[in-house]
Amino acid sequence: MSLPRIAVDAMGGDEGVRVMIAGAAEARRRHDKFKFLLVGDEARITAALESHPNLRAASEILHCSDVVGGDEVPSRALRRAKTTSMGLAVNAVKEGKAGAAVSAGNTGALMAMSKLALRTMPGIDRPALAAIMPTLGDNDVMMLDLGANTEADARNLVQFAIMGAAYSRILTGKDKPRVRLLNIGTEENKGFDRLRDAAAQLQAVTGLDLQFDGYVESDKINRGEVDVVVTDGFSGNIALKAIEGTARFVTDLLRRAFTSSIRSKVGFLVSRPATELLRHHLDPNNHNGAVFLGLNGVVVKSHGSATAGGVANAVAVAARLLEENLTHRISAGLAELRAREADVGTTDEEAEAAK
Amino acid sequence: MSLPRIAVDAMGGDEGVRVMIAGAAEARRRHDKFKFLLVGDEARITAALESHPNLRAASEILHCSDVVGGDEVPSRALRRAKTTSMGLAVNAVKEGKAGAAVSAGNTGALMAMSKLALRTMPGIDRPALAAIMPTLGDNDVMMLDLGANTEADARNLVQFAIMGAAYSRILTGKDKPRVRLLNIGTEENKGFDRLRDAAAQLQAVTGLDLQFDGYVESDKINRGEVDVVVTDGFSGNIALKAIEGTARFVTDLLRRAFTSSIRSKVGFLVSRPATELLRHHLDPNNHNGAVFLGLNGVVVKSHGSATAGGVANAVAVAARLLEENLTHRISAGLAELRAREADVGTTDEEAEAAK
């Protein structure tokens, strides 16, 4: 089977064309079987491609001059879906001209366009936005939903768990990624009914390709003890931004501390390899590429401020999810869930009948 | 007016009596007009007081040998309110034998006992748990609710804003602390109806002793641009623990980085004053003492793992809130809110009549 193309919104993000093209070129070097559809201003894309003959040879350009603004409200962006680089990149997936779209533009607009154009997969009620974060363990951790929906009921949360586990199996290579629901305590009576219902369902249905370990509190997300953290879009967004903001806050404090005296400056220079290691570990470019799960097609959001290396990571996420057929894996997980739920149902009836 | 006593649950927390008594003694040195009611095992308290004659002279001991367990479910703890050190400390406030209670025990149990024994103040529907965090600015930031209630409607959120501002005026000395609602974006259409309704109310009612600045996202809590962050208990708990966990995560990474090579170790030693500064800034002992706001009496929760210095800070929070009459300030704020709401109402009616 030949691999589907990757559509790249070449205009989104803080730096636009140059960084997006350089990133796509680097990703293409890592995944050299892919072809690309580069969406945006043709003259600027052509100019940027001069430094990247390798990518040029594997790309088609889809011209448009219109771009979604960073602060543009989703409703306005939706009306301009047929003329903007973001809209056309997503539309290419809808029309089967690409298997995945990557954009560094406005998250709300990308979310709205993707939902409307691609629709949710059969068996999925709502899509979810998933991102990867570093941990103190050997594997990264994935969290979803991060804001595709403000709310989520028990049924949505169970579907998020299935989707997250499918993605995590690709990322980590684990047969049964460890899944937990985000809550404000680990006792059974904590949180909302919807959390308790989702936990009960995930506990009852055995044999899924995931290991459900109950709840996780937000101070333990990054300890390396969980692979997939499942939550609603509001709580997920709060947790993700709190983690990102605090990582920046502590490194800012550190920078101040290290520049507060000559002695500290000297210490900083001597220990530079150590602080570089820290910087590398926390650099969001190394975990770039949030994914909308549950749509008919792969959509990857790159950070607006990502470097070319960061964009390459986001494009590589799209490549990997296409190579490993994420959508098929999610479908299989949902079918398994339905079959196992039916089993649980039978067992209950039998138990009832045996009374 | 003589100051009310402070009841200290001497048994709660990881280390129990020794740390709690040492902490109370240090707080007493800073606030030397206060008297104390020390609740717990008399023999052990008496032994611990031998090192602190100053505190002994200002204290009465209320003996009990029973203690609430760290993992004890609140419902069980509630049934043992008359026999445990935590229950008796809270009860002393209820009976007017103390103005404030401080405990390092189980948060859920303390919350349940405090709500049941002390009840909410007139005009407050639900209490809220408020805590202080460091920022990059000159002032600390306070966030509430951190878990006294899982959910909060618009009316609760407005009351939290009033209570948080009253506490913040004491802490920061500002006439009008800057208040924001925690949300997943700063655009008006973000989040839940209850957030938009609370924002509309706080915007409409002018003349309160606070400055309402709209929404704040969780990555900007610690930038020093807001004094009081208002949210529901679920989101607040998620945000607080994500911040605490990430601060620990980054400092753990830092420690690993600094011990990864001889050169790094040398650098670490040279730059020690800088890393000490960082450690000091992030040490939770320096911001110890979460407060239950909105009850008929002050209840302060000390971290279970706090040092004597940390406990002293928590006891000092109680002392300061009694000295500055927090409860009276909250009542005044609520009266002001009602008066201003009436104004807004009158204006609306006048506008209606003028049509």
From TrEMBL, chains A, B:
Organism domain of life: Bacteria
UniProt name for this protein: Phosphate acyltransferase
Reaction catalysis annotation: a fatty acyl-[ACP] + phosphate = an acyl phosphate + holo-[ACP]
Protein keywords: Acyltransferase, Cytoplasm, Lipid biosynthesis, Lipid metabolism, Phospholipid biosynthesis, Phospholipid metabolism, Transferase
Pathway(s) it belongs to: Lipid metabolism; phospholipid metabolism
Signal peptide from the UniProt entry: none
Organism: Parerythrobacter lacustris
Family: Belongs to the PlsX family.
Record's function text: Catalyzes the reversible formation of acyl-phosphate (acyl-PO(4)) from acyl-[acyl-carrier-protein] (acyl-ACP). This enzyme utilizes acyl-ACP as fatty acyl donor, but not acyl-CoA.
The UniProt record lists the keyword Glycosyltransferase: no
Quaternary structure annotation from Swiss-Prot or TrEMBL: Homodimer. Probably interacts with PlsY.
Enzyme Commission number: 2.3.1.274
Annotated gene: plsX
EC class of the enzyme, as a word: transferase
GO MF annotation list: phosphate:acyl-[acyl carrier protein] acyltransferase activity
Compartments, record wording: Cytoplasm
Chief location of this protein within or outside the cell: cytoplasm
Pfam families to which the protein is assigned, alphabetical: FA_synthesis
